[in-house]
Specification:
alpha/beta; signal; 2 domains; hydrolase; Rossmann fold; AB_hydrolase_fold; two-stranded antiparallel sheet; ten-stranded mixed beta sheet
Length: 477
């Protein structure tokens, strides 16, 4: 026991604060050293530890969870004192893999970089994972049962299994993660930080700013989903709008007018015409020899399109209209039977608390009237029926409200983003007058890449300086 205490003490000294703030809010928590969950270039000095925080700050039972982070130190002796902190999207995605990439990025030349794993995700303890929902989905296909009903059956089994492990699902939401990030900053005594997020974590970082802006120097948000946006009331329209833009590009750029002419009209007519229709495919599950006749519907075809890269969608649509479904549905079924495709417990908990609790079913029905070819299809894999059995409390109403801030922000999105439209960066800009926007005209959700890294460098160096683009397909405004 004595040797263990000495080791923890020495490693805690290794995790010394990287700045010296004492005044900002946030609770100083215990750090428990750990092996780095991901491999980072060994030429960099890295600091890896668990941040130990309450599982549910509303409960006074003293129960804690462990959230790992990886701090990659810049080799520059004159590095800036404001690190870049990243956490991933989803919700439910892991964040620590980013540390591998940042070690190869020019961003590390000027400042330390921190990857922080959100509660309930892959490397966190506990991780909200299980096979119950995947098993129910597979059962629905094997036996041609109603998919939505089996999602509820699997959701109930999944919740019961997680709670049997002593997990309090009401502690896994954006409000708690926001507090986790502020506690991390307080524990490391960081008095100035740049926040980076993508998709869901773009909104999460806005919520971190909303809770307490004192430590926040700037924000970099890629394809952000603001907390004040009711995504389930938007996403079908977002998908439709992204397809409309894609079809416009196809009409302008395609040389095969016979195949791709009037594709928007053909697509909407075909997918409206197959409403309620059932299709069947002979399928042999891996590891078995029996051929099963599996039923699929329009929703499965739409699921294929939502998960297809934009540049391939026009061809896939023409094939589907011809009735050539087999290869696409087989690939989707292979994924369902061979991998975990169900939403994680963290994703379900966050969406139910953050989004579904605040959504209007009336608006959802209006969407189906406006876009009849989407009727009955859940673009988001977490929806009301699943949340009705998950039963977690909503996040604070204040977190769902937009707010004004004069902090500088770099906001980027792809013109064909089918999930979080560029409209969202315009909405954020309305509330953040010192923000700047980048529209990548050939991209969809999550722009990333070398060009985005270059803009990030320019912005981090001088966050109030106007960003300019020298590329026609990237619009700075």
């Amino acid at each position: 026991m004595a040797n263990s205490s000495i080791l923890i003490g020495l490693l805690t000294l290794f995790l010394l604060p990287i700045s010296n703030a004492q005044s900002q809010p946030g609770v100083v928590r215990t750090l428990e050293p750990c092996a780095c969950p991901v491999e980072v270039d060994t030429s960099f000095r890295t600091r890896c530890a668990y941040l130990i925080v309450p599982e549910n700050r509303k409960q006074k039972n003293g129960k804690t969870i462990k959230l790992p982070f990886v701090l990659v130190q810049s080799k520059n002796p004159n590095k800036k004192k404001d690190p870049l902190l990243f956490t991933g999207g989803g919700p439910g995605g892991s964040s620590l893999g980013w540390a591998r990439g940042v070690a190869r990025s020019p961003i590390i030349n000027d400042r330390d970089c921190i990857a922080f794993e959100q509660r309930g995700t892959y490397f966190a303890l506990p991780r909200l994972s299980g096979n119950e929902l995947d098993d129910a989905i597979r059962e629905s296909y094997r036996k041609n049962l109603n998919k939505d009903s089996m999602m509820v059956v699997g959701g109930k089994r999944y919740k019961k299994a997680l709670e049997a492990k002593g997990i309090d699902l009401s502690g896994y939401n954006t409000d708690e993660t926001v507090s986790d990030i502020h506690d991390l900053l307080a524990t490391l005594q960081i008095d100035s930080v740049n926040l980076s997020g993508i998709s869901y974590s773009g909104g999460l970082m806005l919520a971190v700013l909303q809770k307490d802006p004192a430590r926040i120097r700037s924000l970099i948000l890629d394809s952000p989903l603001p907390t004040f946006v009711p995504i389930d009331e938007d996403e079908p329209a977002n998908f439709n709008e992204s397809l409309t833009i894609l079809f416009r590009h196809v009409d302008t750029d395609s040389t095969n007018k016979a195949l791709y002419g009037n594709l928007k009209e053909k697509f909407e007519r075909y997918f409206t015409s197959i409403d309620g229709k059932k299709f069947y495919i002979p399928y042999v599950e891996k590891g078995t020899t029996d051929t099963v006749r599996i039923q699929y519907t329009r929703s499965d075809l739409l699921g294929v399109l939502v998960n297809t890269r934009m540049k391939h969608i026009p061809y896939v649509i023409t094939e589907m209209i011809k009735g050539n479904h087999y290869s696409y549905i087989k690939r989707a079924l292979d994924g369902i039977f061979e991998h975990s495709t169900a939403p994680s417990g963290m994703r379900i908990s966050v969406y139910c608390a953050d989004q579904t609790a605040y959504h209007s079913e009336k608006v959802g029905h209006q969407l189906y009237d406006a876009y009849p070819y989407l009727k009955g299809y859940h673009i988001n894999d977490v929806y009301k029926e699943l949340c009705d059995c998950w039963k977690v409390p909503p996040i604070r109403p204040e977190t769902k409200q937009p707010f004004y801030s004069n902090k500088p922000a770099l906001l980027a999105d792809g013109e064909m983003d089918n999930a979080c439209r560029p409209l969202y960066i315009d909405m954020i800009h309305h509330y953040m007058p010192n923000s700047q926007r980048l529209l990548f005209t050939k991209y969809a959700h999550g722009v990333g890449g070398d060009d985005m890294t270059r803009f990030m460098q320019l912005f981090l160096d001088q966050p109030y300086r106007k960003i300019e683009s020298n590329k026609n397909d990237i619009i700075a405004y």
